[in-house]
Design brief:
- Helices cover 59% and strands 7% of the residues.
- It folds into two domains: 126 residues, Rossmann fold; 181 residues, Hypothetical protein af1432 (Orthogonal Bundle).
- It has 14 helices and five strands.
- By secondary structure, it is of the alpha/beta class.
- α6 runs antiparallel to α8, α6 packs across α12 and α12 packs across α13.
- The relative contact order is 0.07.
- β1, α1 and β2 form a beta-alpha-beta unit.
- Strands 2-1-3-4-5 form a five-stranded parallel sheet, with helices on both faces.
- It starts with a strand and ends with a helix.
């Protein structure tokens, strides 16, 4: 095993010889007679430890230690003072300057060796801890970089999935509307209505707590499927230019239940998804009425999910302001008045007030 280098600094030649004789069996020892010589040596060698005499001419040990601690290349070298002084005050000065130990001359060889051994061990442990710290910092930076890259990959993948999901939904919605050309743009318009109403409910004292837990983008996407059941209604009924008779209307009403069945079929082919839960509620409950006279299940009041009550308002408003072969388009003011008159019968009364307020009269 390679011996560690120790520098012994003392202006007394006999002390240098005595110190070297004690240490040379265990360490590689270099002796120098002054602080100036020590600094010259340190330009080409970095010792494991310095034994530094305090009382020296030209520059004493205290002044030399101050310089050692100021230089980055020497500040971490352990320094043990060797001195004939025994007063506590001088010892404290040495420790305050950064010495690791203070040994009084004449020293006891075995004690000197033991103290050097202890301080070299401490220095080695300190270096190991610093290396471990640096290694940990590097690993943490690498882990952060990996996590950041992973998060970017996840975000990009999520965006891709959301964009694909939105494209599929838009395609399905357009497919439904293409079979019902008298209501072109209905899905997009009801989506806007749902968005406006949900935005107004965020801070509402009755509905705010529930609505604030919803993912608005996901909700608006899922609302596009509210009429998906119409895809199963025959063209004879869907494209009829006039008003539907009773039998035809009963057939048309089935689109709500069929919509639920279509979404449940999708659910059976994938894992649980909040998006599909909301879509199913929109599809199955947007024709339910506050007084229980709606379809497909005759739900009433709060038993109608909030999503269905919201969609009912957006859906009916768009139907009122849109032209049909069997009716003219009502004006905005006329549609709002009709909706107000249906409060507590067809629509949730509190939601109706919010809708009228946000849409304006």
């Amino acid at each position: 095993m390679e011996k560690e280098l120790i520098v012994l600094v003392d202006d007394n030649p006999s002390n240098l010889r005595a110190g070297k004789n004690v240490l040379m069996e265990h360490y590689l020892v270099v002796t120098v007679p002054s602080a100036a010589k020590m600094f010259s040596l340190l330009t080409v060698n970095t010792p494991a430890l310095i034994l530094l005499d305090v009382d020296m001419p030209e520059m004493d040990g205290y002044a030399a230690l101050r310089i050692l601690k100021e230089k980055p290349e020497t500040c971490d070298i352990p320094v043990i003072f060797l001195t004939g002084k025994t007063d506590v005050e001088n010892e404290l000065v040495g420790f305050d300057l950064g010495a690791v130990d203070y040994i009084v001359k004449p020293f006891i060889p075995s004690l000197l060796l033991k103290r050097i051994e202890v301080h070299l061990l401490i220095a080695a442990q300190k270096k190991t801890l610093e290396m471990q710290k640096k290694t940990l910092e590097i690993q943490q930076k690498e882990l952060k970089h990996f996590n950041d890259n992973l998060q970017r990959m996840v975000d990009e993948k999520t965006r891709t999935v959301v964009e694909l999901q939105d494209a599929i939904l838009k395609t399905v919605a357009d497919l439904v509307e293409s079979r019902d050309d008298i209501t072109g743009g209905h899905i997009e318009r009801t989506q806007r209505g749902v968005s406006v109403l949900m935005g107004a409910l965020r801070d509402h004292p009755v509905f705010g707590e529930v609505v604030s837990t919803w993912d608005f983008k996901l909700m608006l996407q899922s609302s596009q499927l509210h009429d998906v059941g119409k895809i199963a209604i025959s063209d004879r009924i869907l494209l009829k230019p006039g008003k539907l008779d009773n039998d035809e209307f009963e057939e048309m009403k089935k689109h709500a239940a069929i919509g639920v069945q279509i979404i449940e079929r999708i659910e059976s082919l994938t894992t649980a998804c909040d998006f599909l839960d909301h879509a199913k509620i929109f599809a199955g409950t947007h024709h339910e009425k506050w007084d229980g006279s709606g379809y497909p299940n005759g739900l009433s009041k709060e038993s109608i999910p909030l999503q269905g009550r919201i969609m009912a308002l957006a859906d009916v408003y768009d139907a009122l302001v849109s032209e049909r072969p069997y009716k003219k388009a009502f004006s905005h003011a006329e549609a709002i008045k009709i909706i107000q008159n249906s409060k507590e019968t067809q629509f949730d009364p509190i939601l109706t007030d919010v809708f009228v307020n946000v849409m304006g009269t």
